[in-house]
């Protein structure tokens, strides 16, 4: 049975996707980005849980996600800091609650033993060293009180930006991961409840 390295994510509003793509592209052209972020095939996102998904369990994860989405209102978030090549999202109770529910409901379905063939990259593609760390350790090292909601820009340097930046989130998705744990393809997407 096939397995995929996956991420349960919130996808930010189009203006934030565009901003992250623009900042990354500027850095990429200067040789100051670890990977090119193109919203067409590497989506900026907020990770809620990473893991390894057996294909046979995909429909179960989709069902759990739909149940969670139907009772979770759309969120008005704010980018309040820039650190570690990322836009840090203010950890308001609503996003913390969603993260914990995702971990409690979906993590028992996932594994945490990623290997390169589980990533959505062409055969022969060389993944960055340490690619499996986040997938293999998200539940134990980056969940609950250690949860850090953020959007990775993968840009080594970022210009001064006026903060905070408002970010409405309605899209809740399951993504197949690519290099640098980017969201390469959307396997399933639903919408948070209308607030």
Automatic annotation (TrEMBL):
Biological source species: Candidatus Magasanikbacteria bacterium RIFCSPHIGHO2_02_FULL_47_14
Origin: domain of life: Bacteria
Protein name: 2'-5' RNA ligase
């Amino acid at each position: 049975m096939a397995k995929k390295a996956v991420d349960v994510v919130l996808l930010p509003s189009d203006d934030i996707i565009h901003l992250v793509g623009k900042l990354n592209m500027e850095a990429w052209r200067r040789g100051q980005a670890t990977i090119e972020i193109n919203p067409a095939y590497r989506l900026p996102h907020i990770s809620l849980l990473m893991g390894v998904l057996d294909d046979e369990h995909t429909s179960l994860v989709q069902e759990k996600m739909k149940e969670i989405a139907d009772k979770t209102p759309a969120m008005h978030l704010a980018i309040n800091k820039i650190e570690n090549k990322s836009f840090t999202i203010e950890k308001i109770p609503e996003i913390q609650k969603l993260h914990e529910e995702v971990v409690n409901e979906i993590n028992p379905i996932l594994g945490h033993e990623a290997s390169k063939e589980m990533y959505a990259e062409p055969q022969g593609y060389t993944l960055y060293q340490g690619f499996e760390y986040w997938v293999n350790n998200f539940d134990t090292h980056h969940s609950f009180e250690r949860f850090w909601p953020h959007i990775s820009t993968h840009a080594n340097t970022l210009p001064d930006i006026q903060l905070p930046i408002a970010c409405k989130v309605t899209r809740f998705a399951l993504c197949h991961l690519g290099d640098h744990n980017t969201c390469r393809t959307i396997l399933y997407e639903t919408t948070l409840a209308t607030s």
